[in-house]
Amino acid sequence: MLTLYHCADARSFRPLWTLEELGLTYQLNMLPFPPRLLAKDYLGVNPLGTIPTLLDDGARMTESAAMIQYLAARYGEGRLDVPVQDARYAAYLNWLHFGEATLTFPQTLVLRYTRLEPEDRRQPQVAGDYRRWFLARLRGVEAALADERPYLCGEAFTGADISVGYALLLAQTLGIEEAFTGPVRVYWDRLTAREAYRRARRVQAQAANDQGVAAAQVTSALKP
């Protein structure tokens, strides 16, 4: 049984969305944020206390973008993945990691210094600088979509769209989505119209309710 440890709308939303796209059976364990402080037992699963953790047949993973690649390669049967011999393979891998390393990273600093730190430790200038950094890097997504392709790797929806799509979800959470340009806005609307995306949103809300975990305040798992 695949098991995913998840906080509402954290980076773990990437593998949750992937699981729904692939129609896999899994167990979803909801945790309060941040689990390293509010769910100390979780340190027995992931000593770092970060989200996500994915367990599968003895394997344990803690990186959200890697989980997308793993699930697609192992269970996708051609869905969400791009074969190594495909001319789009390099672009697929690049976008898969771009979503986390280039787009999500600066947003975690915006989150930290506008919402997570105590009032006296918040840094508006730092948050503003990294907000601008995110928006500058988002131009890469805009350029890729300028030819009106539906997805980052062309006609097919792939795991790369899940990785980048989560960064856009986090931007919405932080109030940065107001700066989405036309192509990015159309792309975001297309992603959020996918039934698997909507199922993932419903599943996390229902699981949070069933497991007694507050999911009203949407945050992202911030690695120390």
From TrEMBL:
PROSITE patterns on file: GST_NTER (PS50404)
Classification via CDD domains: GST_N_GTT1_like
Residue span, GST N-terminal domain: 1-79
Gene3D superfamilies: 1.20.1050.10, Glutaredoxin
Pfam family, one: GST_N_2
InterPro entries: Glutathione-S-Trfase_C_sf, Glutathione_S-Trfase, Glutathione_S-Trfase_N, Thioredoxin-like_sf
Protein name in UniProt: Glutathione S-transferase family protein
Organism the protein comes from: Phenylobacterium montanum
